[in-house]
Amino acid sequence: MDKAELSRLEKYLRKLFNSKKLEVRGRPTKKDSCEVYIADEFVGVIYADDEEGDRSYDMNIAILDIDLDE
User: Fold this and answer.
1) Three-class DSSP labels, 46-68
2) Model pLDDT, residue 26
3) CA 63, 68, 69, 70 torsion: positive or negative?
4) Pairing of strands 22-27, 54-61
5) Mean pLDDT, 10 residues at a time, the chain of 70 residues
6) Any idea what DSSP says for residue 19?
7) To which H or E segment does residue 8 belong?
């Protein structure tokens, strides 16, 4: 993913989640995905998928059961 694509994703997610603290960062060794952070806390990974010329994104968020008890 290039910087323009990361910026578009970040803009969309900031609006969707109403959070200016959300950041989308590239991954140094992977070009088909990026990482999502909120206030420097890792939230998840977005994977890009090119199928039949259409680009879509899949966001994977891991939630630990210990985090639910807080």
Assistant:
1) EEEEEECCEEEEEEEECCCHHHH
2) 96
3) positive
4) unpaired
5) 96 97 95 95 95 92 86
6) -
7) helix 3-17
The encoded tokens of residue 63 equal 């939630």
Buried b or exposed e, range 17-38, using 16+ CB within 10 angstroms: eeeeebbbeeeeeeeeebbbeb
- Cα–chain center distance at 20: 14
pLDDT (0 to 100) of residue 67: 84
The answer to whether 38 and 21 have CB atoms below 8 angstroms apart is yes
The pLDDT score that the predictor gives to residue 53 is 84
